[in-house]
Amino acid sequence: MDSFVINYVTEKLPVANTSDERVSTVDTLLATTEPDSKDSVEVTIPITQKIYEDSTYRAYVSGFHPALDSIFIFQRNEVVYIRSPTTKTKRWGIGIQLGAGLTPHRVEPYIGIGISYNLFQF
Question: Closest Cα to residue 100, out of 112, 89, 90, 109?
Fold first, then answer.
């Protein structure tokens, strides 16, 4: 459906002065019912509403003198995913160590600086 009627209004419209029979008939009818109003006639006009739309908007227009009733604007949403480059985990390092040291006579506590290999990362 292209458009639909939402209301009716009554407007006074001027009557044309031509030699057309239909106008003469209207003039004659008006002259018998309302002698002072030969220059205009009341007409009931349907007020229609039409919808215009595409992917970015929808607009509702209606009226005898067309007017914009409402408009809806649809924004385009663009989602951008940024992947951070994967960093290579470092397994080797230098650091302070605390632990037990094995000597030729026995096991003794050890505190020092050394090279380490990371088995687990937390």
Answer: 109
Element (H, E) at 10: strand 3-14
Q: Which residues of 102-115 are buried (b: 16+ CB within 10 A; e: fewer)?
A: eeeeeeeeeeeeee
Better-scored residue on pLDDT, 66 or 23: 66
Tens digit of pLDDT for each residue in 66-95?
A: 889 999 999 888 888 888 877 777 888 888
Find out whether 80 and 86 touch, Cβ atoms under 8 Å.
Answer: no
Q: Which long-range contacts (CB under 8 A, 24 or more apart) does 71-78 make?
A: none
- Among 50, 27, 45, smallest CA distance to 37 is for 27
pTM: 0.42
